[in-house]
Amino acid sequence: MDRHDVEPRKGWPAIIEEQGLIYWRTELPDGGEISYWDETHHYSFTEEEVYEFEAAARLLMEMLVEAGDHIIEENLFSAMGIPGWAVPKIKETWELEPPMVYGRFDFAFTPEGPKLLEYNADTPTAALETGAIQWYWLQDVYGAGGDQWNSLHEELVRRWKELNDMKRLPGDVVHMLHTTAEKSGEDFMTIGYLAETARQAGLAVELMPIESLGYLRDEGFVDLDGDPSAPSSSSTPGSGSSTSATWRSSTATWASARARRSGSSRSGR
Amino acid sequence: MKRSKVVTLGTVGALAAAFAGCGDDETAYCIDDNEEVVENQYCDDDRSGSYVWFFSGGSYARGASVAGQSGERIAANNKAALASRNGFGSTGKSTSGSSVGIKTGSSGGS
Fold first, then answer.
1. Which of A38, B56, B79, B84 sits a CA distance of 20 to 30 A from B68?
2. Chain B contact set for A189 (CB, 8 A)
3. A194: left (phi over 0), alpha (psi -120 to 50) or beta
4. Residue B55 in contact with residue B26, Cβ under 8 Å?
5. What's the pLDDT tens digit per position in A131-169?
6. Do residues A180 and B23 touch, judged by C-beta distance below 8 A?
7. Helical residues (DSSP H) of B20-84, grouped into ranges
């Protein structure tokens, strides 16, 4: 893995904001500002390294599923700090296997190989950044010849199509829920981006705040119009929806994003 | 080659424009090599790269944890809890004001 300095695009804030990354500003108390988005450098990986990441992501996903089976079979819930009242629902969900859309592994790149830092299966942000913002950056800086191990955008569209074809999406409309409690726009735009990928897959999508979600005893969850909503099929950080890794091809990019965010002092050791 | 061929954003730009004008709710912490939260000045003055900003509102931190000063893990996405402790978890070790952790939102309401 190599780190490269690169000239930021002229007028990059307007560029990324137009593409949806409106939450890049982080203000300091003294009136200064740090940007969450930083295009002053990037990381490159050899093909071998990329394959190593992909293999690691694949293996980890298998191991996580295996671990899930093990926890249920051995009844290890209390040891995991999971309250008893949640257990039936967990078992039911595990058996029913509601549709998985995406998840995100965060790796550190170490001399010993990829090291798992965390797995965001339920609250994966940075979808827009990975699927779109980075791609546009690549076009602008390296042109059509710039390579990237990342086809997240197509993969999301493909997955929505697949779920629709398999009749795994209940109702005529997919409800995508965001929260109004998150003020930077990150949650809204992450869900907005997912909604767009579903739209590109030919689905009817309704974007709504989870705060507006209603519940009727006989009908379950309903949207603002009182129409049935099915949160279990939408991808909403924090909603408890079931999401998982169909996102393995972009692990190299994730590692890059992680390294950039946390600075060189925390990666590569 | 596994790169995306064409990425079209469709409605995303319109959504972004619709959201514009709302406040920023990100929190940044200065952390050291051990991922412990330290005072902001270490990051401000750092020339060695030993201290880095940790964006709790950002991608890899959401739903994640960061080590507090006592080594206790605190949920970085638990904004309510963090806010009530001035940017800290249950250790409550924060000093006065803004020397540790940066909470934003001053750019105007939502």
1. A38
2. 12, 15-16, 19
3. alpha
4. yes
5. 999 999 999 999 988 899 999 999 999 999 999 999 998
6. no
7. 40-45, 79-84
Residue position matching structure tokens 């930077």: A184
Chain A contact present for B14, CB below 8 A:
no
Q: What is the DSSP string of A202-238?
A: T-EEEEEEGGG-EEETTTEEE-TTS-B--GGGS--TT
Instruction: Give ipTM to 2 decimals.
Output: 0.74
β-pair type (A204-209, A173-178): parallel
Say if residues A174 and A233 touch (Cβ distance below 8 Å): yes
Dihedral (CA of B83, B86, B87, B90) sign: negative
CA dihedral A154, A159, A164, A166 (to 10 degrees): 140
Can you name the residues that pair with A205 across neighbouring β-strands? Answer: A174
Task: Identify residue A58 by its one-letter amino acid code.
Answer: R
Burial of B29 (0-12, 13-18, 19+ CB in 10 A): buried
Compare all CA atoms of chain B with the CA of A254 and give the residue at the minimum distance.
Answer: B60
Count of Cβ atoms closer than 10 Å to residue A58 Cβ: 13
CB pairs under 8 A between A and B: 168
Q: Which of A266, A165, A27 is nearest to B49 (CA)?
A: A266
Q: Which pTM was predicted?
A: 0.66
In sequence order, what are the beta bridge partners of B28? B55, B102
Bridge partners, A116 (sequence order): A107
Tokens (6 digits) for B11: 């409605």
Contacts of the segment A113-117: beta carbons below 8 A, 24+ positions apart: A113/A52, A113/A56, A114/A52, A114/A53, A114/A56, A114/A251, A114/A255, A116/A56, A116/A60, A117/A258, A117/B60
d(C-alpha B41, C-alpha A70), whole Å: 46
Distance CA A60, CA A109 (A): 15
Q: How far apart are the first and last CA of chain A?
A: 12
**pLDDT tens-place string over residues A83-126:** 999 999 999 999 998 888 999 999 998 989 899 999 998 778 99
Query: Of A141-150, B48-57, B71-80, which gets the smallest average pLDDT?
Result: B71-80
Helix (H) or strand (E) holding B102: strand B102-103
